[in-house]
């Protein structure tokens, strides 16, 4: 008899606890659904303050030493030219010399590729400049034909542009995006007759840097444009608020 009473009492207690847990689950579910998720955007335009530029030059000769000596002469001409344009020696970097053997190649009567006899050495070298004098290096890259006119086989690449204060820009954009997201959330809550509660979650997107007014695609890992001196950066912030 006593065992039956105890069993009934335990079962009743379990039922009451179960109702309580179920009630809390419903309450928490409704509370989690009563939220607002918004995304804010922060943007900023700025001008690059660092530029890099490079070019390459080469020499061909059957004799390796002669090719190297000729390349060294061209290197001096290029170095002196850059110095004459106001470039600091500390900003000029020459790479190591790349040496390639060349062979005359042809296709035989069956169309098979045949590597023929040795035709000499090709030696090439790269010169690079990194400077905060953006306008000066831009002008240099546009007028590099002056080097070619001195009889040097020189190939110039396009400049790349960077910004050294990107960390500050990022902080400003995060603040702007957060403000934008909060204002959107407040407007939504106001229009629905509610008010914002506590911030539950904040998620930051990746920074995207493109040329202004361009149609460049955003990348999942972030875009970083280096071909444009003028840049526009953007970042998104997603905020999730409770609604009272």
Automatic annotation (TrEMBL):
Transmembrane helix as UniProt keyword: yes
Pfam families: SIMPL
Organism: Chryseobacterium oryctis
Segments traversing the membrane: 6-26
UniProt KW keywords: Membrane, Transmembrane, Transmembrane helix
Signal peptide start-end: none
Presence of the UniProt keyword Transmembrane helix in the record: yes
Protein name (database record): SIMPL domain-containing protein
């Amino acid at each position: 008899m006593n065992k039956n009473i105890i069993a009934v009492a335990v079962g009743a207690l379990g039922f009451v606890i179960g109702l309580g847990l179920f009630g809390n689950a419903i309450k928490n579910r409704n509370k989690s659904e009563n939220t607002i998720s918004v995304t804010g955007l922060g943007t900023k335009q700025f001008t690059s303050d660092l530029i890099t530029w490079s070019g390459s030059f080469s020499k061909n000769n059957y004799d390796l030493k002669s090719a190297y000596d000729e390349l060294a002469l061209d290197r001096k001409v290029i170095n002196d030219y850059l110095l004459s344009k106001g470039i600091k020696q500390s900003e000029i970097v020459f790479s190591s010399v790349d040496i390639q053997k060349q062979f005359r190649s042809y296709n035989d009567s069956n169309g098979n590729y045949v590597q023929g006899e040795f035709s000499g050495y090709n030696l090439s070298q790269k010169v690079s400049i990194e400077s905060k004098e953006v306008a000066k290096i831009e002008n240099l890259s546009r007028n590099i034909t002056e080097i070619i006119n001195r009889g040097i086989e020189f190939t110039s690449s396009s400049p790349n542009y960077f910004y050294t204060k990107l960390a500050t820009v990022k902080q400003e954009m995060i603040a702007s995006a957060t403000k934008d997201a909060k204002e959107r959330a407040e407007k939504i809550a106001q229009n629905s007759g509610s008010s914002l509660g506590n911030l539950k979650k904040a998620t930051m997107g990746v920074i995207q840097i493109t040329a202004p007014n361009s149609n460049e695609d955003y990348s999942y890992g972030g875009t970083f444009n280096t071909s444009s001196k003028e840049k526009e950066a953007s970042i998104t912030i997603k905020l999730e608020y409770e609604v009272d």
